[in-house]
Every structure is written in structure tokens, then in C-alpha cells.
Design goal:
The chain is of the alpha+beta class. About 35% of the residues lie in helices and about 15% in strands. The protein is built from five helices and five strands; from the N terminus they run ααβαβαβαββ. It has helices at about 5-10, 25-30, 45-50, 65-75, 90-105, and strands spanning about 40-45, 55-60, 80-85, 110-115, 115-120. The protein has a five-stranded mixed beta sheet with strand order 1-2-3-5-4, with helices on one face. Strand 2 (about 55-60), helix 4 and strand 3 form a beta-alpha-beta unit.
Length: about 140
């Protein structure tokens, strides 16, 4: 695989030969939640989460014209998960370029979460990995 293809696969713009599949039932359950009252393409947590500063938006744009909504949420300090799986590759590339410029201009960060899914975090947001800090890297703790 060439370096351009690898970079395109990493950005999620082309199909990766190692693509992992997920459980379709989980995706259906997530979409039927009653907690989301906004546009079905934009999901923001409830008002109580907003008061505590714990909101995250999930956006599944149909085209580049939806990039403005991503920018407005991010500009308001809301971390945004952008799901580009339903977009054409050319439009998805434009949205990724827009998101990269947006995060650079507002001193945030962009991180690839999955194939064609990105997390945009504002400058004041810290991303914590799922790995415990004190766990040894080589396996079990040796007590001897």
C-alpha cells in the first residue's frame, strides 16, 4: 500500500482493507434514544450537562454545507464527534480540511477515533485514554 493510500486510509477517506465491523444492533439502539431532541444529525447532551460543562456533540453531516454547524458548536467550546461515514470521499476530505483549520485556529485538537470518525476538542478539554496510569506495561504485577 502506497504512502498516499495509507494516509488516505488513516484519515478515513478511502476504505481500509483492515476495516473492523461493529454490531448493528448497538448502532440502532444509540439512534433510538429519547434524550436527543435536536436535529437528528446533531446530538447534544441535556441541559443539566450543559450547566456542568459536560456537553459533547455528535454530528453526521450530509455534505460540506453542514460544516458551519460543526464550526459553531466547536467555537462555543463543545467537543464535537464528526462521523463522515455517510459522506462522499471528496466532501469528507473538505470537511476534514475544514475541521483541521478550525482546530488549528482555535488552538484545539483533532483526533481520529475510527475510520472516518473524528473527535474535535477545544483547547480547554483534556482527552484521557482508557488505560490506567499505574498499570505496568509488561503484564501482571510481579509480587516477588
Amino acid at each position: 500500500m502506497g504512502s498516499v493510500r495509507k494516509a488516505s486510509a488513516w484519515l478515513g477517506l478511502v476504505e481500509d482493507s483492515d476495516e473492523r465491523y461493529y454490531d448493528d444492533e448497538y448502532a440502532e439502539d444509540a439512534e433510538t434514544s429519547d434524550a436527543w431532541v435536536t436535529d437528528p444529525r446533531v446530538r447534544v447532551a441535556s441541559d443539566s450537562a450543559q450547566e456542568q460543562g459536560r456537553r459533547i456533540a455528535t454530528v453526521s453531516p450530509d455534505g460540506f454545507r453542514d460544516a458551519r454547524g460543526i464550526g459553531e458548536l466547536f467555537r462555543d467550546g463543545v467537543p464535537v464527534i464528526v462521523n463522515l461515514t455517510s459522506m462522499e470521499p471528496a466532501d469528507a476530505k473538505r470537511v476534514v480540511d475544514f475541521a483541521a483549520g478550525l482546530t488549528f485556529g482555535l488552538r484545539g485538537s483533532i483526533e481520529r477515533v475510527a475510520n472516518r470518525v473524528f473527535l474535535l476538542t477545544p483547547a480547554d478539554t483534556q482527552i484521557v485514554s482508557g488505560e490506567p496510569a499505574g498499570r505496568p506495561q509488561d503484564g501482571f504485577f510481579n509480587q516477588s
